[in-house]
Design brief:
Blueprint (H helix, E strand, L loop, with lengths): L23 E7 L9 E7 L5 E7 L1 E6 L5 E5 L4 E5 L5 E4 L7 E6 L5 E5 L5 E5 L7 H10 L7 E4 L5 E5 L8 E5 L6 E5 L2 E2 L5 E17 L5 E17 L5 E7 L6 H4 L3 E2 L5 E2 L5 E6 L4 E4 L8 E12 L5 E11 L8 E3 L5 E6 L3 E7 L17
């Protein structure tokens, strides 16, 4: 696992032989230019018992795409949502400052929904020009649970979805708010899915992985985190009754799955066909320095694969590979449009590249480059 890799070294793996389509770079955002302090920083904090906590501060905490192909980036430092077109040209920003922007979503009408606050318990609403819509905002905040939330999503009908991660005193909680903002549905430990279904993800096995952080001052900090190796997926119907289940991986790891053994995220992205897209981490790691942004530390970066599975859990292929943080789940760095194109953020030492992995053609098959299709 990760603990077997020495600092500054990287095992060379040709990931491209497993990828279904070739990604293209749409545009780049440089640190301190179009966005403030793009990147992730490793920091240590003290909890109430004066013990060290490990946490991250994110310049871009989330991004999303509207139906016209425009990008919306949550600029956590500046407290705004910034809109760019597909060429990377800045269009506009939301009009005021929000403390600790956590997540962003856009509905079919172009309204912008922002999860924010410290803790993140509030949702701000803006129109497609970035102007605040207080009346709609008041409706939404009346039905919110008053708990810390982790991210927000919006479907094609205008329903909002909220996720609360598992904490010491609570389960994973998922919420759905209808388009009129008058009804809140609660799902315990299972996320709303497509066609009025929902699913729960049960970790079946895990293994401690060792993370090494090299700070600017030269200190090396090491700690252990949990790496998820396999899981059981339970599917429920629209009434919440159990429908069926399957395992990931389905039976045994295929060749491509063997080099990405660690599941990085428990909440999948999914498309209109009902296919799941999980993020999985590889054993290979490398160190990236953000010296061009003085406020950021030196930290560990590892390859993350975007794995596609069909609605029955059968492995379809790897849609893209990008480098992400070895010590956290990169949920907010990958998005999907209705056509099945995958968008993701690829962080570099001086910039972040906005990438797209185009959907395979309907008659195309997984490349036969050392990994066969089931």
């Amino acid at each position: 696992m990760i603990c077997g890799t020495s600092p500054g070294k990287e095992n060379i793996v040709n990931f491209s032989r497993y990828i279904m389509t070739e990604s293209v770079k749409l545009f780049s955002l440089r640190y301190g230019k179009g966005m403030s302090n793009i990147g992730l920083s490793f920091i240590l904090e003290k909890d109430e018992n004066y013990e060290e906590n490990i946490s991250t501060v994110i310049g871009i905490s989330d991004f999303t795409i509207d139906s016209e192909g425009n990008f919306y980036f949550a600029d956590k430092v500046n407290g705004k949502i910034k809109k760019f077109n597909i060429k990377g040209e800045f269009i506009q920003a939301t009009e005021d400052y929000l403390e600790s922007v956590e997540s962003v979503a856009v509905n079919p009408q172009g309204n912008i929904f922002v999860l924010y606050g410290n803790p993140s318990t509030h949702i701000a609403v803006y129109d497609n020009k970035g102007k605040r819509k207080m009346s709609e905002e008041e409706k939404i905040n009346k039905v919110l649970p008053g708990l810390t939330l982790n991210y927000i999503r919006c479907d094609s009908s205008g329903s909002l979805y909220l996720f609360r991660d598992r904490y010491a005193d609570s389960e994973e909680l998922y919420y759905k708010i209808n388009p009129s903002y008058l009804k809140l549905e609660v799902y315990k430990s299972r996320c709303p899915y497509v066609k009025e279904s929902s699913l729960s993800l049960v970790i079946k096995s895990s293994e401690n992985i060792k993370i090494r952080i090299c700070q600017k001052r030269g200190e090396v900090i090491e700690y252990y985190d949990e790496g998820f190796l396999s899981m059981e997926v339970n599917v429920f119907d629209k009434n919440g009754a159990f429908y069926r289940k399957f395992n990931l991986p389905e039976s045994k790891f295929q060749e491509a799955e063997k080099i990405f053994p660690v599941i990085k995220v428990k909440y999948p992205v999914y498309d209109e066909k009902g296919h799941f897209y999980f993020l999985k981490g590889a054993e290979v790691i490398k160190e990236i320095s953000l010296n061009s942004a003085p406020s950021w530390n030196f930290y560990i970066w590892g390859p993350i694969g975007v794995f596609e599975y069909d609605s029955n859990g059968r492995f379809v292929g790897i849609r893209a590979v990008f480098y992400g943080p070895a010590f956290m789940r990169a949920t907010n760095f990958v998005k999907l449009d209705p056509e099945g194109n995958v968008y993701y953020l690829d962080f570099k030492s001086d910039r972040v590249d906005v990438m797209m992995a185009p959907a395979p053609k309907t008659d195309s098959k997984l490349k036969k480059r050392g990994d066969g299709k089931r």
